[in-house]
Amino acid sequence: MGWLLTKSKGKRKRKKRPAQREPMSWGRVYRMLQPFGAVFFVAALAIGWVFAHGYLKHHAVTRTPHIVAAEQVELADAQPWMNDHLQHQLKNVVAAPITANPLDSRALDTSAASLAANPWVERVERVERTPDGVAVYATYRKPVALIGWDRTFRPVDANGVLLPGQYSVEQLQSVGLPVIVGLANSPDEPGQPWQGDDLRAGLALVDLLEPQPFATQIMAYDVSQRDDRNRLRLALHTAKQGVVLWGLPPGDEMTVERDAATKVNRLNNLHRVYGSIDAGGKVVEVFGEAV
After folding, report:
1. Residue 145, SS3?
2. Which of 91, 185, 203, 211 could form a disulfide with 70 if both were Cys (CB 3.0 to 4.6 A apart)?
3. Do 260 and 268 meet the contact criterion of CB atoms below 8 Å apart?
């Protein structure tokens, strides 16, 4: 039985000693926190920006109000033909939506939209604040002719867009724009094109003849007549109660009648010989084989 009381003489297993931990130090803390440093830095910047932006915005609104009056609006693209009354009217449109908050971009958008809806404005490029107020960059519609309608005369631009305003016969000379009469279609609202091929033909003839030396003799461009094929037959009413029968609109002549350049030369010859394009108050035809 002695063998039951005998201890085994196999090798003893040694217990592994736990690894010694590096004692806590500032260097160790730094290494542990280093991966999070960038995150903390960005977060601090973001929080700082939020508070700083809010403070600056509050300061700008409460301490430096910037109310814009019409006198502080600059129409950077204003044209020489735009009188003071029209410019002041457009400046009021721009200034009305501008708030006291210089950081309010919505007010600038509203101002630009209001200006773009004005019939005198063809296109708005931008509206921006300046140290002195507000600057406007836009394209404006220039009146090039007056349309006789219902005993009044109404301005249109080169594209036939109706512009605000109505004038009497007594005001025509002071306005100084060529007059087109005899349109078939009634006008739409200001800011909308006046429909009809007759107006387009009249404007084309105005553009061709207004630079000529005899243009002051033309009292009205008449677009009321058509031939049996419904083609426009233009005419000029003169200061001496004469009439010049022009014929088809510029560019529509083809081989049917003399071209626009020939007609202009004939009018210049009449002006040189007779002193007037109507040969002294007569009815003159310039579209045929001869005058």
Report:
1. strand
2. 91
3. no
Q: Where are the alpha helices (DSSP H) in 21-130?
A: 26-63, 84-95, 105-116
How far, in Å, CA of 205 to CA of 279, rounded?
20
Pairing of strands 232-238, 243-247: antiparallel
DSSP annotation of 72 reads G
How confident is the prediction along the chain (291 residues), in pLDDT tens digits per residue? 444 444 445 555 555 555 555 555 556 555 655 665 555 555 556 665 555 555 455 444 444 445 678 999 999 999 999 999 999 999 999 999 887 777 778 989 999 999 999 999 999 999 999 888 899 999 999 999 999 999 999 999 999 999 999 999 999 999 999 999 999 999 999 999 999 999 999 999 999 999 999 999 999 999 999 999 999 999 999 999 999 999 999 999 988 899 999 999 999 999 999 999 999 999 999 999 999
On the CB side of 140, CA atoms within 13 Å amount to: 20
> What is d(CA 37, CA 29) in angstroms, rounded to the nearest whole number?
12
User: For residues 77 and 142, is the Cβ–Cβ distance under 8 A?
Assistant: no
Q: Which two tokens stand for residue 16?
A: 């592994």
**Could you give the 3-state DSSP secondary structure of residue 46?**
helix
Give the Cβ contact number of residue 67 at 10 Å: 12
Q: Which of 190, 40, 201 is nearest to 119 (CA)?
A: 190
Structure tokens at 105: 């971009």
Residue type, position 68, single letter:
V
CA distance 196 to 204: 13
